[in-house]
Each structure stands twice: as C-alpha cells, then as structure tokens.
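User: Second chain of the day. Same drill as before.
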Amino acid sequence: MKRLDANEAAPIVDRMLNNLLGTVPSQGRAGSEARTAISDTRANAYKLCIDDALGPPLDECFELARQAGAQAQQLEYVRQQIESEAPVTLGGALAMDAGIRLCLAAQCRIIASMTFVSRQDVTTIKQQLQQPFQDAEEIAADDMDQMTFQMLVALHGAVTQHLAATARPLPRVVNFRFYEPLPSLVMAYRLYADASRCDELRAENKVVHPAFCQPSGQALSA
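Assistant: Same format as last time:
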C-alpha cells in the first residue's frame, strides 16, 4: 500500500479496533488475548498497511473478540461506525470494506450459536443483516472481486437459511389486553394456564412491580 493510502487506512483501522475493543470483556484469559491482539494491531497498523499485511492480524482480532464473548449487537455497532467512515483513497476504502466484512462474518458465527425465544427475535436479526449484506455484496461486485462476492453471497444465504429453520418451530409474540392491572402470576395463569411463566411476562414487558402489571402487553403465543 502506498504511503498516501496508508496514512488514511491506518487511522481507520485504529478507530475500528478501538470500537472492537469495547466489545471484549474486561476479565478472563480469552479477553486478555483479544485485547493484546487488538493493541498490537493498532500499534502496528501503519506498518501493516504499508507492507500489505493487515489482513491476517485484523481477522485474528475479530475472531478473538468473538471467542472472548463479543455480542452480535455490539459488532453491529462496530460495523455501523466503520460504515460512517468516508475514505478518499483506495487504501482507506480497502480497510473500511475489510472491517465491514469481518464484522458480518463474526456476527454470523455468533448468531449460529444464539438461542431465540420467538419468531420476532429471529426476524429482527434477519432484517438487521439484510441491508449490510446487500451493500457489501454490491461493493464486491462493483470492484469485480468475484471471490469475495461469492463468499458474501454464500454466507448471506447460509445465515438466512439458518434463521428460517430456527424460526419455524418458535412461537410468535402476540399482544394481549386485560380489563385492569393484574399480578404477573394471575396474568401468566390466564394466558398460559401456567403461573410459573410469570417471570417471562415480567421480562418481556419490563414490569416495574409484579403485583401491578399493565393490563396490555406482549406474550409468547405458546
């Protein structure tokens, strides 16, 4: 990478990894390894860009962050921050695109191990990924980067199929309304014939006091 490109790409990488660092837990060996890798890559970002050697260490940073416990929503924030960059050099654009693709890949791996409780949760994730994947695929196509384009399309298809299969057996979220405020135990019994699901209702509707639940809210259909 030329110096002009590296002068723009290195700060983009630094900001990207600073945001990624925020997804890493502060305790544990996995978190320590992720923080070390991220710090080393940030410190050497300019040289890595000049040497065209940024790819492997950047990939390792995202993978270690995932292993340390980074969440899909946290990586979504990282991706959005990367997308807010406005590079004018080829090197800057390459760094930005690499960060976006690594975010998407890490998010998909995290989603593959997530447990969902309703179809709406699955749909939300699916919709959240739709536009970022389309944008990344379009950029790869415009760059005539056939390998990256095919990999993005394959990953997009795989995560979509996984989410569709995951959603199929899950209950829907439905709205309910009672005529007056009720205790969560009573609501759970009336909705499910199972008072033990009162905690589920409280969590879903952010109930302040379980003895006085709002008469309307949301619950799982089964």
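Strands lie at 173-177, 216-220.

User: Great, on to the next one.
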